[in-house]
Amino acid sequence: MKNYKYILFDLDGTLTDPSLGITKSVEYALKKFEIPVGNRGELEKFIGPPLINSFMEFYDFDKEKAVKAVAVYREYFSVKGIFENKIYDSIEDTLERLKKMGKIIILATSKPEKFANQILEFFKIDKYFDLVCGATMDEKLCEKNDIIRYALSKIGNSNENAIMVGDRKFDILGAKENGIDSIGVTYGFGNLDELNFAGADYIISAPEEIFNIIS
């Protein structure tokens, strides 16, 4: 085990399951553009990457249209979708134990920082976080590698004793690009193949397994 001091966590799919709120918000946006949704479950692919990228990739929106779609998405998300969310089992116990170990706990999410703070407060886990780093509302800062770089800059670029925990390839690749280790979690929206292919240093299937890695 390595004595990591700084533990960076992704939010969606790592700390909470936001699938209902996000997919309903995407569905709401698509309906505004007269795009029908047959199976809302198919919209879970929006969980993880920046929204603007997903509208462009999955529905061939140009950037201008994607920006408008994100604005419409937030009409629903900011009022209802943000709270259609649930915290994963044992997350709070894991955060509390890490805190007692003296770890510096950081949120590094592609979700806008404003919404991320609201979610942490809603689940009453904000007290465990020393730093919250999220996207800007204008999406100028939204890519996971940039979010991680921003978080590291806030702690003096302490790459050697920092590790990123996340459920998608974006978390793993972002960590790698910033020269820090990574833990992939399989209980979120990624899968074992995705995390292995991205090059996760460790993979766990439950939050408490992090203590097999972090001393």
Give a topology summary.
Blueprint: E1 6-9, E2 16-17, H1 19-32, H2 51-59, H3 63-77, E3 86-87, H4 91-100, E4 104-112, H5 113-122, E5 131-135, H6 144-154, E6 162-166, H7 169-177, E7 181-185, H8 192-198, E8 202-204
Parallel strand pairs: 1-4, 1-6, 4-5, 6-7, 7-8
Antiparallel strand pairs: 2-3
Structure at a glance:
The chain has helices at 19-32, 51-59, 63-77, 91-100, 113-122, 144-154, 169-177, 192-198; strands at residues 6-9, 16-17, 86-87, 104-112, 131-135, 162-166, 181-185, 202-204. By secondary structure, it is of the alpha/beta class.
Features:
single chain; 215 residues; alpha/beta; Rossmann fold; DNA polymerase, domain 1; 2 domains; six-stranded parallel β-sheet; two-stranded antiparallel ribbon; 8 helices; 16% strand; globular
Notes on the structure:
- With 215 residues, this protein is of the alpha/beta class.
- It folds into two domains: 6-17 and 86-212, HAD superfamily/HAD-like (Rossmann fold); 19-83, DNA polymerase, domain 1 (Orthogonal Bundle).
- It contains eight helices and eight strands; from the N terminus they run ββαααβαβαβαβαβαβ.
- The chain has helices spanning 19-32, 51-59, 63-77, 91-100, 113-122, 144-154, 169-177, 192-198; strands spanning 6-9, 16-17, 86-87, 104-112, 131-135, 162-166, 181-185, 202-204.
- The strands form two sheets. It has a six-stranded parallel sheet, sandwiched between helices. The chain has a two-stranded antiparallel ribbon with strand order 2-3.
- Helix 1 (19-32) packs across helix 3 and helix 7 (169-177) runs parallel beside helix 8.
- The chain is globular, with a radius of gyration of 17 Å.
